[in-house]
Amino acid sequence: MAKILIIDDEKSIRRTLREILEFEKFKVDDAEDGLTGLDFLKKNSYDIILCDIKMPKMDGMEVLEKSLKIYPDTPVVMISGHGNIETAVEAIKKGAYDFIQKPLDLNRILVTIRNAMDKLDLVLETKILKKKIEKSRSFEIIGESKPILEIKSMIERVAPTDARVLITGSNGSGKELVARQLHEYSQRSQMPFIEVNCAAIPSELIESELFGHEKGSFTSAISQRKGKFEQADGGTLFLDEIGDMSLSAQAKVLRALQENKIARVGGDKEIKVNVRILAATNKNLQEEIKKNFFREDLYHRLSVILIRVPSLNERKEDIPLLSNFFLKNICEEHNVSLKKFSEDAIKELQKGDWSGNIRELRNVIERLVILSEGTITSKEVKAYANLNN
User: Fold this and answer.
1) 4-18, 112-126, 226-240, 266-280 — which is least confidently predicted?
2) Global pTM?
3) Two domains, one topology: 145-310 and 314-384
4) Residue 9 CB: number of other CB atoms within 10 A?
5) pLDDT tens across 34-44, in order?
6) Hey, which of 59-63, 217-221, 233-237 has the most confident mean pLDDT?
7) Which CATH superfamily does the domain covering 145-310 fall into?
8) Backbone angles phi and psi of 369, in degrees to 5
9) What are the CA-CA distances from residue 145 to residues 151, 316, 322, 327, 363 (Å)?
10) What CATH architecture applies to the domain 314-384?
11) Does pLDDT of 153 surpass 80?
12) What is the homologous superfamily of the domain 3-132 according to CATH?
């Protein structure tokens, strides 16, 4: 229910507006002058403000300016019995949504309020879209080295299809970023992206996690639960560290891929699922197959497309771009003024042995942001980065 604040020194105007707006199911507060109106604004949030111009203590133009500082997106409709074209233009220039002259036409008021509500909805939708764009940017793959450009090209070609992709690479190299980019650029991007870390889930629980369970199927199953396959229906299921999945779970995943059907643990009903599978591992699955730790038939199902993510040591030419990208983000996160690297600091970072890959680099940059002042030099890198050169 939308909430409206009326600020007007005429009691009859406030009463009339309140009656008509409450009849239209709006919640209404009213104030008899500008100062009281501002007090309301400091304590409450409103969807729309109706504000008179000529008032004692504080006039409507000042209220308009102050209210927009508190709630810049809230539409303010100015009303006045002494208005003219110049006053209306001034109010609009200062940020008013609309200007209505007295005596008030109640139908005009209602139309204006509905239009203002539509504008508010558009502002909200725009903010949501901006957040989505920012989110997709946060999954951007940073780098211009040859292996990274090849990965970006592969993503552009593969993402629009439903082909299964197996992503390999060492821990911290950015396998999840590749998976998220594949999802963001796919036709499923508006549907769920569900991630399962197969290494973090005990082997006895992985089947329940993936396929769900029926109430009473095991001791702690006190209610029915949907698994990750069902949660990802229509979207993408990312099986991270799939090399750590138990053989029994592998067999069920293989069946789900073959038939596009699953059955919850403890249930007989087959449930159709429509998911795109992306998988990642830091293990050599060919070696795992030889040791009978991984099913060869599942490997071939998953590896329609193979993408290998290089280690940071294989792409040190990307360290300047990555370092400045992390520097900007971390400074914003810690609410500190933007710092910068000296050339010798970047060269020092490039000398390092980055066994922890991108994850380690980000941690080092965060440490440098916290412990350094102003420009980060090679001296700070040597002192705080703890790199094995």
Assistant:
1) 112-126
2) 0.65
3) no
4) 17
5) 999 999 988 88
6) 233-237
7) P-loop containing nucleotide triphosphate hydrolases (3.40.50.300)
8) -60, -40
9) 10, 8, 11, 20, 22
10) Orthogonal Bundle (1.10)
11) yes
12) Response regulator (3.40.50.2300)
